[in-house]
Amino acid sequence: MQAKSASLSAIEDQVVEVFPNDLNAHGTLYGGKVLEIVDSLAAIVAKRHSNTVCVTLGIDSVRFLNPARRGDILVCMASVNKAWRTSMEIGVKVIAEDFRSLEQKDILSAFFTFVAVDDNHNPVEIPSLLPESEDQKRRFNQAEIRRSIRLKSRT
Predict the structure, then answer these.
(1) How many whole angstroms separate alpha carbon 94 and alpha carbon 106?
(2) Tally of CB atoms within 10 A around 69
(3) Which domain holds residue 47?
(4) CATH number at residue 61
(5) Structural domain tally of the chain?
């Protein structure tokens, strides 16, 4: 199976507006709402990379960095960091943009692990990842470290 570039499946700037029904009692975006958005985007990236159905195995290192408020525009990014035999790590980042001032602030970063599956829900092999840029190579190496930590914690 031929390796694929991260850029073939990446989502660079998916935008979503924060509406009143997305807010908690403090007037900020529900954390679960933004996780729902990025889980869906990460799943699309995983499908694009593997050309098959993928399921979320886990989420690591979720960081809520700043709040988003009503009317903010969420700019979401997702990309494969590393692909193993049947699983892959997708890195996601979300920036909130104030539509009036165009001021931007990071609101979330996380790492999703997906497994590619067949129609019987059995894991299937996926293409490896070919990192090209220095940033992709850094994320590729860091993904392997996170995976090693996850695997060690299981024993």
Answers:
(1) 6
(2) 15
(3) 4-153
(4) 3.10.129.10
(5) 1
Secondary structure E strands in the chain: 4-5, 11-17, 53-64, 73-83, 87-97, 104-117, 129-130
* Whole-prediction pTM: 0.93
Rounded to 5 degrees, φ, ψ at 124 are: -130, 155
- Half-sphere exposure at residue 39, Cβ-oriented, CA atoms within 13 angstroms: 13
The region, left, alpha or beta by phi > 0 then psi within -120 to 50, assigned to residue 9 is alpha
DSSP 8-state assignment for residue 23: B
pLDDT in tens, 14-45: 999 999 999 999 999 999 999 999 999 999 99
CB atoms within 10 A of CB 74: 22
Task: Using the predicted structure, report yes or no on whether residue 136 has a pLDDT greater than 90.
Answer: yes
What is the tens place of the pLDDT at every residue in 61-78? 899 999 999 999 999 999
